[in-house]
Amino acid sequence: MQVYYGLDQEFNIPNPVITTGSFDGVHVGHKTILNRLRKIAREVEGESVLITFHPHPRTILYPETAGRNLKLINSQREKIKLLKTTKLDHLIIVDFTLEFSKITPADFIRKILVKKLGARKVVVGFNHHFGHNREGDYEHLYELGRYFNFGVEEIPQQDIDNETVSSTKIRKALKEGNIQRANAYLDHHYIIKGTLEKGDRELQDNGFPTLRLPVEEDTKLVPPDGIYAIHVISGHSYYRGMVKIRRPGFTDTEPSGDIDLALHLFEYNNNLAGQQATIYFHKQMRNGAIYANGYDFISELKEAREETEELIY
Domain ends where: 160, 182, 210? Predict the structure, then answer.
């Protein structure tokens, strides 16, 4: 997958089949769009293209309301990692600014999709909107597609057990600690990616050697305080274990970078400090109510470890 940062460059993509959107989570609905994108690209001897945005448009357009405390399922690096697994050909990351937000739907189509990229076909999800004040929609695309000679296709909503999948519902599930539901919506494990550091000395002295993983972006959504069954991949190595999440305060509005993530791996490897790693979440084993001092806390950790070790994952 070729990654481009911005539109100020020359693109030479054969018969581009394009979609646009934030694609936070790269969930099952997003994957349906991308699979269709790739299929059409093969049929027209072209290549698939996703135009996405950073930072998230809501944080720029509504900084005091909808975007004020917006938490995202993925950091930018995590999103790129997940998109690579979809076999997308090209990812264009546009710096979303107030100036960019003022581009009209017609200008977005004419200047970017047509003139800049030479779109052969555009694929969008159900009820997709774009351009200034979200004035652009499927009908707008269809009409201008006829004028500029590119095709347009709309993908219907995707359901799991008759429930419509959306990034908003995934965020809600994660905020409730419902990892299994979030994973079902995502069609992959919820992840946190970062660089490992040496862990808590007190936990190590009580038989729980740990590594710490700082959260890379303040907008990253981190599940509520508690203990979670996880596996970790660092390089080519796989480790089963638990992660203890604890916030310095008692709300979910503080910067994610302040949240403490302590990883206890069943096959502990102290040499992992300083290495890149990805945590894959499986299940919440304990909620935040366990946080107490002394022996009871360590006893609770031991019970959680025994239960987690018995899981098949």
Answer: 160
Query: Has residue 22 been placed in a domain?
Result: yes
Taking the model in full, what pTM does it have?
A: 0.89
In-domain check, residue 19: yes
183 Cβ partners below 8 Å, 6+ apart?
Answer: 189, 190, 281, 282
Looking only at the bridges linking them, the beta strands covering 121-125 and 260-265 are unpaired
Q: Name the 3-class secondary structure at 103.
A: coil
CA neighbours closer than 13 Å in the CB half-sphere of residue 195: 4
Q: How many CA atoms lie within 13 A of 299 on its CB side?
A: 5
pLDDT tens digit sequence for 244-277: 999 886 555 666 768 989 999 998 777 899 999 9
Q: How many domains does the chain have?
A: 2
Sort residue 25 into left (φ over 0), alpha (ψ -120 to 50) or beta. Answer: left
Looking at the fold, whether 15 and 111 belong to one and the same domain comes out as yes
CA distance 109 to 20: 11
Last residue of a domain, one of 107, 138, 160: 160
Nearest CA among 36, 44, 40 for reference residue 14: 44
Full 3-state SS string of 27-64: CHHHHHHHHHHHHHHHHCCCEEEEEEEECCHHHHHCCC
233: domain range? 190-310
Q: Are residues 101 and 234 in the same domain?
A: no
Q: What is the pLDDT of residues 10-37, one digit of tens each?
A: 999 999 999 999 999 999 989 999 999 9
Residue 9 vs residues 15, 131, 187, 197: alpha-carbon distances, Å = 18, 21, 34, 38
In sign, the C-alpha dihedral spanning 101, 185, 264, 239 is: negative
Rg (CA), the chain: 22
Three-state DSSP at 96 gives: coil
